[in-house]
Model the fold of this input.
Amino acid sequence: MINLKEKLDAIYLKYNRKKYIDPDPLLFLYNYHDKKDIEIAGFIAACFAYGRVSQIMKAIGHILDKMNPSPFEYITTRTKKDIAYDFQGFRYRFANEVHLTDLLWGIRNVLNLFSSLENCFYSGWSAKDSTLIPGLTFLYDQIKQNWIPGHLIADPQKQSACKRSHLFLRWMVRKDNVDPGIWEKAKFSRLIVPLDTHMYRTGVMLGFTKRKSQDIKTAIEITEGFKKISKKDPVKYDFCLTRFGIRKGLDMDNLSQIILN
Done:
């Protein structure tokens, strides 16, 4: 295990740098300086973080361009009719203008009640909770009160790994050279790995799980595996490991050669 930790730390030191962010939805968060803008941009970016990375970046860029210079000001000052008009004809894979409008309006409802996504999240979370799922569940419930969430946000109370939601939480909670970590209340140790295909294959490769289903149980198993290496920060290696398979010139074969040799 010590040898594995050394290999993972070497990957972290080499790739956990801002120059390796592009192409990654996290890149959009660096366009903003105000905390409320960053969390909204991050939430939207995470919701659309599925599919081909080039198309993900294009869709998120289109949405945030419409909302610039301040996503917070845009959402809190527009009517639902205004938002629907601004995004008329929007399409991204399974999402259309109705889904996007309802998502933004759900965020607005949260902002009206709690003033920020952070306040809403922490209204449903306690420091006694072993994970951040209770806060995530509360945030989900508040956003979906007046609309049908569809596929843009997964329900944390079901078996889904909620990859995009846990990706958002990684961005908000962790703070290092890459993750902005603007929510300072929760500990890194409560995070769960954002389980996508790349992280699932990595978890299997490392022997952290033998499960076939990429659900929340598998995400927790892989997180527990990383906790044996980095107890206080189990999601530490998520960004650097997922560069393999996202960036050109870095694939899963490269990663397996580094780790298994």
